[in-house]
Specification:
Blueprint lengths: L3 H8 L10 H13 L2 H19 L3 H4 L7 E3 L5 E3 L5 E3 L3 H12 L13 H12 L4 H12 L5 H16 L10 E2 L7 E2 L6 E3 L3
Parallel strand pairs: 1-6
Antiparallel strand pairs: 1-2, 2-3, 4-5
Helix pairs in contact: 5-6, 5-8, 6-7
């Protein structure tokens, strides 16, 4: 399989004719077929940027974006139904944090996470399906410990993960955000969240 930079070279080709030769177009199509969802989204964002520059669209027009509905399935997969049920993949502990804040639109202060310990542990056990209960409890205890930086690390990873699925400012709707020491929340309108999980 060709590398990402080579893919972009093909994708953004600007030769004399301005079009891809047939062999290159075939290679490009093969590469696209092998890409995972997040990489394909990244490529699409770059294509959109290139098209905006070619057509003279303003940056503001290119950044217009509306939040999309997500579905939390019975087995806690997170899907985007308008994208053919594309799954948003994240590590179990990061997903636990995401789902906890998704379930609490009123928001949560990090220093008060200990009140949600049992809920987080139930979520983590349902999502992870591996590892010892003792190790899971230790991971949750690190998240709720105000002296540990674990919750900030997980929120940072969550934001980075979401930015691969939602372009530009789109990830902000799904991210855990709030001023230091204040309530943190996910701003996404909960009418755009369908819970199938119990």
């Amino acid at each position: 399989m060709i590398g990402w930079e080579a893919f972009l070279t093909l994708l953004l080709y600007e030769g004399e004719s301005g079009v891809l030769e047939e062999p290159a177009a075939g290679l490009l199509a093969e590469y696209i077929d092998r890409m995972d969802a997040a990489s394909l989204l990244e490529a699409m964002q770059r294509i959109a940027g290139r098209l905006s520059r070619m057509t003279g669209s303003t940056e503001a027009e290119a950044e217009k974006w509306l939040p999309e509905k997500i579905v939390v399935t019975e087995d806690y997969r997170i899907l985007i139904p308008d994208r053919f049920d594309m799954e948003i993949r994240m590590r179990p502990l990061v997903k636990t944090v995401f789902l906890l804040f998704l379930r609490h639109p009123e928001g949560i202060r990090f220093r008060e996470l200990s009140k949600y310990r049992e809920e987080m542990l139930r979520l983590y056990k349902a999502i992870s399906n591996r590892g010892s209960l003792d190790n899971m409890e230790k991971s949750i205890d690190r998240l709720i410990d105000p002296a540990d930086n674990s919750i900030n690390e997980k929120v940072s990873v969550l934001t980075e993960t979401l930015s691969r699925y939602f372009p530009g400012p789109g990830a902000l709707y799904y991210s855990v955000r709030g001023a230091a020491g204040q309530v943190k929340r996910i701003s996404l309108d909960r009418c755009l969240v369908e819970w199938k999980a119990k």
